[in-house]
Amino acid sequence: MGQQQRAVAANPAFRAPKRQRIGGVPSYDEPRLRYESPYGIRYRREGDAERLLAERIPPSSREEEARITQMRLQRERDELAYEVEKAKRRNEELERGKQDLERSKRELERSKQELEAEARRDIERAYRINKRKLHEMETIRKEDVEKIATYAYKLFRQTHDRPILPMPGRRFHGEPVEAFPPMHGTIGLPAPSLSGDAEALLAPPRTRSSSQQTRTSDYYRAGDGAELVGRMGSHVLTRDPSGDQCWDNRSRAACKFFGTKRGCKKGDRCTFYHPPARLPRHEPDAERKSAYGQGSGVEERGSGGVMKEEQAGVKEEQEIKEEMIKEEQEANKEEQVVIKQEPEDEFDPSLNSTTPTRANAGNGATTQALITAALAVAKAWQILTRAAQDGAAAIIKSAGEEAFGAEVFGEALVEAVKHAK
């Protein structure tokens, strides 16, 4: 039995052929008898129908394919169910959002109605209280109302840096009635005074840059109720003795010569402003008022007036310089003395301690010596300043020596003046 089986197994005719690879590729160790088509049907070249049927795809492969198809269909069903569930959830969320929106709308409407009712109650209560207070309050006089209105108007224009115009139907202090015809609901400018030259009136508004705490004169000054406004009370239109309209003195340029050593030559006739703070307090009001020097201020209304003021100031300066030159020339003529030549080393006390003669001890010698001493002290002070800036000890030392020399020279000068006397 075993030998027969072995013989059958050894005989190539009875040996079962090897399985071929898919695609009909034959094995190389046996003849090309059997192929596999790409479709899985195995056939022989000389094969019969039974063998072809028997060698089709085995049932296990068909079951596998059916199982794979079933899994694919199940997966598609699961995906569809998931999408349906997701759409359901989205619809539920939308429904919930819609309900929340409706609820918030209802709450908003309710709170709005409550707020309106509360505001209505507050308004009614305030109306009742104010009505009771109004009946209890005493009547405000017409003058008080006008003052308050003027003050508010001026304060608004002042804080917003705008010109203070006259209010409708109001006039400046001392202004004639004809200057303000009745204005029907409009705020007009005051009619200009025609007593000045046309050039100054037609010129552009004047702009000054001075250290005085006033506005420029192209701002209209308000006079009514000015006592309420503090600093704004200085913007008042006044009239000088000639009858011309002029701005207050605080808007004029200050006099350069008033309060100096020489003083202002023109006094009350000066067209510039003399500050009253420099006057003694015991003077009566009339003198103090006259010291203001109220001249005709019409020419100050435009740039022409400014030119005239500046020309007047330049003329006064030139006159003072000419007077000083004349006085110096007269003093030089009176002296007529020969000034002794100063020694080269002006800080040596041995040279300067000699007693000068009567001829050299005049006013000229004294003046020259004083000037020299002053120059020496100024030079020493300049060196000291430079030393303070640079911080150099050597410069400080030399400055001390020069200052000591100037001091010794000053003592010698005093001795010389004593001997000359």
UniProtKB/TrEMBL annotation:
**What keywords sit in the KW lines?**
Metal-binding, Zinc, Zinc-finger
Offer an example of a GO molecular function term for this protein.
Answer: zinc ion binding
Positions of region (Disordered): 1-31, 48-68, 88-117, 281-316
Query: Zinc fingers (C3H1-type) at which residues?
Result: 249-277
- In this chain, composition skew of type Basic and acidic residues spans 281-290, 298-316
Identify the residues that the record assigns to the C3H1-type domain, covering every copy: 249-277
Concerning InterPro entries, the annotation shows: Znf_CCCH, Znf_CCCH_sf
Note whether Metal-binding occurs among the keywords. yes
Give the protein name, as stated in the record: C3H1-type domain-containing protein
Q: Which organism is it from?
A: Friedmanniomyces simplex
